[in-house]
Amino acid sequence: MQSLVEHARTFTEHVAANAKDFERLADGQTPEALFVTCSDSRVVPSLITGARPGQLFELRTAGNIVPRYPGRDRPTGEAATIEYALCVLQVRDIIVCGHSHCGAVGAILRGDDLSAMPAVRHWLEHSTDGRTPPADAGDLPGAVQAHALAQLDTLRGYPAVRERLADGSLGLHAWYYEVHTGSVSVHRPERGTEFARL
Protein backbone atom coordinates (compact mmCIF):
# COMPACT_ATOMS: atom_id res chain seq x y z
CA MET A 1 0.00 0.00 0.00
CA GLN A 2 2.81 2.41 0.79
CA SER A 3 4.08 2.47 -2.80
CA LEU A 4 0.59 3.44 -3.98
CA VAL A 5 0.39 6.21 -1.40
CA GLU A 6 3.80 7.55 -2.39
CA HIS A 7 2.84 7.64 -6.07
CA ALA A 8 -0.44 9.40 -5.29
CA ARG A 9 1.46 11.92 -3.18
CA THR A 10 3.75 12.85 -6.10
CA PHE A 11 1.21 12.53 -8.92
CA THR A 12 0.62 16.28 -8.97
CA GLU A 13 4.18 16.65 -10.27
CA HIS A 14 3.27 14.49 -13.29
CA VAL A 15 0.11 16.53 -13.83
CA ALA A 16 2.05 19.79 -13.62
CA ALA A 17 4.55 18.51 -16.20
CA ASN A 18 1.65 17.70 -18.56
CA ALA A 19 -0.58 20.59 -17.60
CA LYS A 20 -2.14 21.24 -21.02
CA ASP A 21 -3.28 17.62 -21.39
CA PHE A 22 -4.86 17.59 -17.97
CA GLU A 23 -6.46 21.02 -18.39
CA ARG A 24 -8.27 19.70 -21.47
CA LEU A 25 -9.63 16.82 -19.38
CA ALA A 26 -11.28 19.33 -17.05
CA ASP A 27 -13.50 20.40 -19.97
CA GLY A 28 -14.99 16.90 -20.37
CA GLN A 29 -14.26 13.52 -21.85
CA THR A 30 -14.50 12.17 -25.39
CA PRO A 31 -13.31 8.56 -25.16
CA GLU A 32 -12.86 6.60 -28.36
CA ALA A 33 -14.07 3.29 -26.98
CA LEU A 34 -15.79 1.51 -24.14
CA PHE A 35 -13.32 -1.12 -22.93
CA VAL A 36 -15.04 -4.00 -21.12
CA THR A 37 -12.63 -6.26 -19.32
CA CYS A 38 -12.03 -8.34 -16.23
CA SER A 39 -11.39 -6.91 -12.79
CA ASP A 40 -8.15 -8.90 -12.74
CA SER A 41 -5.30 -6.67 -11.57
CA ARG A 42 -2.99 -8.05 -14.27
CA VAL A 43 -5.16 -6.56 -17.02
CA VAL A 44 -4.46 -2.82 -17.42
CA PRO A 45 -6.37 -1.40 -20.41
CA SER A 46 -4.32 1.78 -20.76
CA LEU A 47 -1.10 -0.21 -20.60
CA ILE A 48 -2.30 -2.69 -23.24
CA THR A 49 -3.63 -0.03 -25.63
CA GLY A 50 -1.31 2.88 -24.85
CA ALA A 51 -4.39 4.99 -24.16
CA ARG A 52 -3.94 8.39 -22.54
CA PRO A 53 -6.35 9.73 -19.91
CA GLY A 54 -9.70 10.41 -21.58
CA GLN A 55 -9.32 7.90 -24.43
CA LEU A 56 -10.97 4.85 -22.84
CA PHE A 57 -14.20 4.53 -20.89
CA GLU A 58 -13.81 1.37 -18.81
CA LEU A 59 -16.20 -1.24 -17.48
CA ARG A 60 -14.54 -3.89 -15.33
CA THR A 61 -16.37 -6.89 -13.95
CA ALA A 62 -15.38 -10.31 -12.65
CA GLY A 63 -14.82 -12.36 -15.78
CA ASN A 64 -15.54 -9.38 -18.08
CA ILE A 65 -19.17 -10.45 -17.89
CA VAL A 66 -21.83 -8.27 -19.47
CA PRO A 67 -25.13 -9.12 -17.77
CA ARG A 68 -28.31 -9.20 -19.80
CA TYR A 69 -30.07 -5.86 -20.20
CA PRO A 70 -32.08 -5.49 -16.98
CA GLY A 71 -34.86 -3.15 -18.02
CA ARG A 72 -36.21 -0.45 -15.74
CA ASP A 73 -37.17 -2.73 -12.85
CA ARG A 74 -33.64 -3.89 -11.98
CA PRO A 75 -31.10 -1.21 -12.88
CA THR A 76 -27.44 -2.24 -12.77
CA GLY A 77 -24.19 -0.32 -12.79
CA GLU A 78 -23.06 -2.28 -15.83
CA ALA A 79 -26.11 -1.30 -17.88
CA ALA A 80 -25.82 2.33 -16.76
CA THR A 81 -22.15 2.43 -17.79
CA ILE A 82 -22.90 0.98 -21.23
CA GLU A 83 -25.81 3.34 -21.87
CA TYR A 84 -23.85 6.38 -20.74
CA ALA A 85 -20.91 5.44 -22.97
CA LEU A 86 -23.21 5.13 -25.99
CA CYS A 87 -25.85 7.80 -25.42
CA VAL A 88 -23.82 10.57 -23.79
CA LEU A 89 -20.18 9.95 -24.67
CA GLN A 90 -21.00 8.60 -28.14
CA VAL A 91 -18.17 6.06 -28.15
CA ARG A 92 -17.66 4.56 -31.59
CA ASP A 93 -16.45 1.14 -30.49
CA ILE A 94 -16.94 -1.39 -27.70
CA ILE A 95 -14.12 -3.82 -26.98
CA VAL A 96 -14.71 -6.88 -24.81
CA CYS A 97 -11.30 -8.11 -23.73
CA GLY A 98 -10.83 -11.52 -22.15
CA HIS A 99 -7.47 -12.66 -20.85
CA SER A 100 -5.31 -15.69 -20.24
CA HIS A 101 -5.30 -17.26 -16.77
CA CYS A 102 -8.85 -15.98 -16.12
CA GLY A 103 -10.07 -17.36 -12.81
CA ALA A 104 -13.75 -16.67 -13.53
CA VAL A 105 -13.85 -18.46 -16.89
CA GLY A 106 -11.67 -21.23 -15.46
CA ALA A 107 -14.16 -21.74 -12.63
CA ILE A 108 -17.05 -21.92 -15.11
CA LEU A 109 -15.13 -24.34 -17.33
CA ARG A 110 -14.13 -26.64 -14.47
CA GLY A 111 -17.45 -26.40 -12.65
CA ASP A 112 -15.71 -25.29 -9.45
CA ASP A 113 -17.58 -25.43 -6.15
CA LEU A 114 -18.02 -21.76 -5.28
CA SER A 115 -20.38 -22.26 -2.33
CA ALA A 116 -17.92 -20.44 -0.02
CA MET A 117 -18.27 -17.37 -2.28
CA PRO A 118 -22.02 -17.05 -2.86
CA ALA A 119 -21.83 -13.63 -4.54
CA VAL A 120 -19.22 -14.89 -7.01
CA ARG A 121 -21.20 -18.08 -7.63
CA HIS A 122 -24.40 -16.12 -8.22
CA TRP A 123 -22.64 -13.65 -10.54
CA LEU A 124 -21.15 -16.40 -12.68
CA GLU A 125 -24.30 -18.54 -12.78
CA HIS A 126 -26.82 -15.75 -13.27
CA SER A 127 -24.79 -13.56 -15.57
CA THR A 128 -23.54 -16.27 -17.89
CA ASP A 129 -26.87 -18.13 -17.90
CA GLY A 130 -25.25 -21.05 -19.68
CA ARG A 131 -24.14 -18.80 -22.56
CA THR A 132 -20.44 -19.66 -22.48
CA PRO A 133 -20.03 -22.30 -25.19
CA PRO A 134 -18.61 -25.58 -23.90
CA ALA A 135 -14.93 -26.12 -24.53
CA ASP A 136 -12.34 -28.76 -23.82
CA ALA A 137 -11.54 -28.55 -20.10
CA GLY A 138 -7.87 -28.10 -20.99
CA ASP A 139 -8.52 -25.26 -23.44
CA LEU A 140 -8.84 -22.22 -21.22
CA PRO A 141 -7.72 -19.81 -23.98
CA GLY A 142 -10.44 -21.15 -26.29
CA ALA A 143 -13.03 -20.90 -23.52
CA VAL A 144 -12.03 -17.30 -22.71
CA GLN A 145 -12.28 -16.35 -26.38
CA ALA A 146 -15.70 -18.01 -26.70
CA HIS A 147 -16.73 -16.23 -23.51
CA ALA A 148 -15.74 -12.84 -24.96
CA LEU A 149 -17.86 -13.56 -28.05
CA ALA A 150 -20.79 -14.52 -25.81
CA GLN A 151 -20.54 -11.11 -24.13
CA LEU A 152 -20.79 -9.42 -27.54
CA ASP A 153 -24.00 -11.36 -28.12
CA THR A 154 -25.31 -10.08 -24.79
CA LEU A 155 -24.40 -6.51 -25.72
CA ARG A 156 -26.50 -6.84 -28.87
CA GLY A 157 -29.51 -7.18 -26.56
CA TYR A 158 -29.05 -3.66 -25.19
CA PRO A 159 -31.41 -1.15 -26.86
CA ALA A 160 -28.71 1.53 -27.22
CA VAL A 161 -26.33 -1.00 -28.79
CA ARG A 162 -29.00 -2.22 -31.22
CA GLU A 163 -29.78 1.34 -32.30
CA ARG A 164 -26.15 2.25 -32.89
CA LEU A 165 -25.44 -1.00 -34.74
CA ALA A 166 -28.48 -0.41 -36.94
CA ASP A 167 -27.29 3.04 -38.01
CA GLY A 168 -23.71 1.82 -38.52
CA SER A 169 -22.16 4.11 -35.91
CA LEU A 170 -20.86 1.41 -33.56
CA GLY A 171 -18.33 -1.38 -33.86
CA LEU A 172 -18.17 -4.41 -31.55
CA HIS A 173 -14.85 -6.15 -31.00
CA ALA A 174 -13.63 -9.18 -29.02
CA TRP A 175 -10.01 -9.25 -27.88
CA TYR A 176 -7.90 -11.81 -26.04
CA TYR A 177 -4.94 -10.60 -23.97
CA GLU A 178 -2.16 -12.97 -22.99
CA VAL A 179 -0.88 -11.92 -19.58
CA HIS A 180 2.50 -13.64 -19.72
CA THR A 181 3.49 -12.45 -23.23
CA GLY A 182 1.55 -9.21 -23.66
CA SER A 183 0.19 -10.34 -27.04
CA VAL A 184 -3.31 -9.35 -28.10
CA SER A 185 -5.48 -11.38 -30.45
CA VAL A 186 -8.67 -10.08 -32.03
CA HIS A 187 -11.74 -11.85 -33.33
CA ARG A 188 -12.00 -11.90 -37.10
CA PRO A 189 -15.72 -12.41 -37.90
CA GLU A 190 -14.90 -13.49 -41.44
CA ARG A 191 -13.06 -16.48 -39.95
CA GLY A 192 -15.89 -17.73 -37.74
CA THR A 193 -14.82 -17.89 -34.12
CA GLU A 194 -11.10 -17.60 -34.86
CA PHE A 195 -8.91 -15.02 -33.14
CA ALA A 196 -5.74 -13.70 -34.80
CA ARG A 197 -2.83 -11.85 -33.26
CA LEU A 198 -2.51 -8.15 -33.93
Automatic annotation (TrEMBL):
Entry-linked InterPro entries: Carbonic_anhydrase (IPR001765), Carbonic_anhydrase_CS (IPR015892), Carbonic_anhydrase_sf (IPR036874)
Keywords: Lyase, Metal-binding, Zinc
EC number: 4.2.1.1
Taxonomy, superkingdom: Bacteria
Catalysed reactions listed for this entry: hydrogencarbonate + H(+) = CO2 + H2O
Record has Amino-acid biosynthesis as a keyword: no
Required co-factors: Zn(2+)
PANTHER family: CARBONIC ANHYDRASE
Its job: Catalyzes the reversible hydration of carbon dioxide to form bicarbonate.
Family, per entry: Belongs to the beta-class carbonic anhydrase family.
The protein, known as: Carbonic anhydrase
